[in-house]
Amino acid sequence: MKPSTSGKPPLSVPPSAHPAPARADTPYPEVLPADGSAPDYPAVLPAEPFAEVLPVEEVPVLQPADEVTSVEDNRGLTPPARRLGVWRRITSGCEWVFGAISLMVGLAVLAPLPLLQFFTFGYLLEAGGRVARTGRLREGFPGVRMAARLGGIVLGAWLVMLPLQAVSSLWVSAQIIDPYGLAARRWKAVLMFLTIAAAFHIMAACSRGGRLRYFFWPFNLFWLIRRWWRGGYYTEARDAVWNLFVSLRLPYYFWLGLRGFVGSFLWLAVPVTLFALGRQAPLLGFVGALLLAWVVLYMPFLQIHFAVANRFRELFNLRAVRAAFARAPWAFGFALLITLLFALPLYLLKIEMIPREAAWLPSLIFMAFIFPARLLTGWAFGRARRRPLPRHWFFRWTSRLGMVPVALVYVLLVFFTQYTVWGGIWSLYEQHAFLLPVPFFGM
Q1: Are the CB atoms for 140 and 130 separated by under 8 Å?
Q2: Pair 260, 233 in one domain
Q3: If we measure between CA atoms, which residue out of 310, 332, 307 comes closest to residue 383?
Q4: In a domain, 434, yes or no
Q5: 37-46, 87-96, 171-180, 374-383 — which is least confidently predicted?
Q6: Residue 199: is it exposed, middle or buried by C-beta count within 10 angstroms (0-12/13-18/19+)?
């Protein structure tokens, strides 16, 4: 290329027309002159496009040591939100414990009542099934929050009724002394007034939500005016009562308990009958004892498998139980040991007949023993569900060698109970560890 003779500077290609790729060591593009001469390095671009560097004094520096908050001082500082969260966790834990206690008491009250026993039995099956499905023991308390609300209503109503009981006792005493006297008439009037006031008190506490604290201060004038002004109070109260009834799932628990009882009784009927005939025919009693020990090995886990699948035929699926045992043999052995061990002390309560009015007290002891055993059985079955492969033969056979003697010892102790309990030979059909959740059938 010849140099230009016009005296004008050579034309160069604008950088924007053919941009050269930027390199890591050259932060600016190179432009070749039109005459082919090499440019003078370094080609310095104008400084205006570059960001201005902050002076040293404007660069943020670390805070001085006296302005930094120490860790020790920060530990003592609790924000309001954190205090509120801690308080909510504490109240939630207390509510859960109160709900669990209310749940156990409610199930114990239903356990000795005919037909209502199936609600308790169905709940026990569902609790074990939930633990088996989720693998978490805390899932074995379905409806514990609702039980806390209902338990609070019952406890609050009982506290409100205490003055009525005291006044009623005074009125009865006054009637015995002088039926037509002035004192008897006055105490009767006071009793009627307190009865009406207690009824309104309980209704007001339940209308505000039924929590226990509302029974100590049920009347809130501002809340009542605001609710009546907003309207729809009756509709909301009606829907809340209906939703509460539906959330209890009473038909589900009854149907689950009824099917579980029928299937378990079909398993136990023949072995227990042969076992009971051992007095007249010792050979039949021996065969019945062996059959009962064999059924005892499978019965707790068949019930949990039925609760997990919610199908009646799963109560007879021995193959599924064997496969689950192979994946968690020691857990199955431990669950069987606790189940049978916790069932034995309840036979001591059947030595003498207990009055029907106090039947729920032994049932409470029954729930305290049987309910943890159900949860533990569900945990063992859930442990097997989470493992895809069977365990080593050493664990399987050591578990079998421990489970078989446990079942035989249990059957032997049950055989001697027919001579100690007041029900005699018919007590062998109760089998409260597997059948209806009541240790006193027929009370």
Answers
A1: yes
A2: no
A3: 332
A4: no
A5: 37-46
A6: exposed
**Where among 182, 216, 247 does a domain terminate?**
247
Residue 357 included in any domain: yes
Query: Are 243 and 259 found together in one domain?
Result: no
DSSP string, 306-323: HHHHT-GGGGG-HHHHHH
Q: How confident is the model at residue 442 (pLDDT cuts 50, 70, 90)?
A: very low
pLDDT digits (tens, 9 = 90+) for 261-304: 999 999 999 999 998 888 888 888 899 999 999 999 999 999 99
207 and 336 together in one domain: no
Of the CA atoms within 13 Å of residue 421, those in its CB half-sphere come to: 25
Q: Cis omega before residue 329 (within 30°)?
A: no
Pick the range with the lowest mean pLDDT from 17-21, 91-95, 138-142. 17-21
Residue 284 lies in a domain: yes
Cα–Cα distance for residue pair 364/362, rounded to 1 Å = 5
First-to-last C-alpha distance (Å) of the chain: 121
Residue 243 sits in the same domain as residue 258: no
Same domain, yes or no: 413 and 279: yes
Same domain for 236 and 280?
no
Residues 232 and 345 in one domain: no
What is the extent of the structural domain holding 165?
145-247
State the angle between helix axes of 117-134 and 360-385 in degrees (0 to 180), rounded to the nearest 10: 30
pLDDT at 376 over 90: yes
Last residue of a domain, one of 247, 277, 299: 247
pLDDT given for residue 74 in this prediction: 47
The verdict on 190 and 259 lying in the same domain is: no
**pLDDT, tens only, 50-86:** 445 555 455 454 444 444 444 444 444 456 667 777 8
Cα gap 98→146, rounded to integer Å: 11
pLDDT of residue 11: 46
355 has a pLDDT exceeding 60? yes
Cα 365 from Cα 358, distance rounded (Å): 12
Do residues 296 and 404 touch, judged by C-beta distance below 8 A? no
Long-range own/partner contacts, residues 164-167 (CB < 8 A, 24 or more apart)? 164/191, 164/194, 164/195, 164/198, 167/191, 167/194
pLDDT at 384: 92
Residue burial 4-31, b: 16+ Cβ < 10 Å; e: rest: eeeeeeeeeeeeeeeeeeeeeeeeeeeb
